[in-house]
Design brief:
With about 100 residues, the protein is an all-alpha fold. About 90% of the residues lie in helices and about 0% in strands. The mean pLDDT is about 95.
C-alpha cells in the first residue's frame, strides 16, 4: 500500500514537472526547484525505488503464475531478492541520473 501511495505522489510530481515544462519557464523553474530541493530528492528517490519494487514484484508474480516458486522457502528467498534488487536498481538509476547531469 505504501509503495502505491509513493507511486501516486511521484507520478503527480512528474506530471506537474512535464506540465510546467510545457507551459512557461517560471512554472518550470518553480517545479524544478521543488524537485531539486532535499525533500524533492527524497521524494524522487522513493518514487524510483517504489517503481523498481513494483516492477520486480510483478516479475515475481509472473513467476508464481507459472506454478513455480510457491514453496515457503522459495517465496521467502524471492521476497528478499525483490527488496535487495529494487534497492540496487534504484541506487543505480539515481546514480546514473546524477552522473548524466554532470553531478549537479
Amino acid at each position: 500500500r505504501a509503495t502505491g501511495a509513493i507511486l501516486y505522489g511521484g507520478t503527480l510530481l512528474l506530471a506537474a514537472w512535464i506540465f510546467a515544462a510545457a507551459s512557461n519557464p517560471e512554472a518550470f523553474s518553480t517545479i524544478n526547484a521543488i524537485i531539486r530541493s532535499p525533500i524533492g530528492i527524497v521524494v524522487i528517490a522513493g518514487y524510483v525505488w517504489a517503481l523498481m519494487f513494483h516492477a520486480m514484484n510483478g516479475l515475481r508474480h509472473l513467476y508464481w503464475d507459472s506454478g513455480r516458486g510457491l514453496a515457503p522457502k522459495t517465496a521467502t528467498i524471492t521476497s528478499w531478492v525483490v527488496y535487495i534488487g529494487s534497492l540496487l536498481l534504484a541506487a543505480f538509476i539515481l546514480w546514473a541520473s546524477y552522473a548524466a547531469n554532470g553531478g549537479a
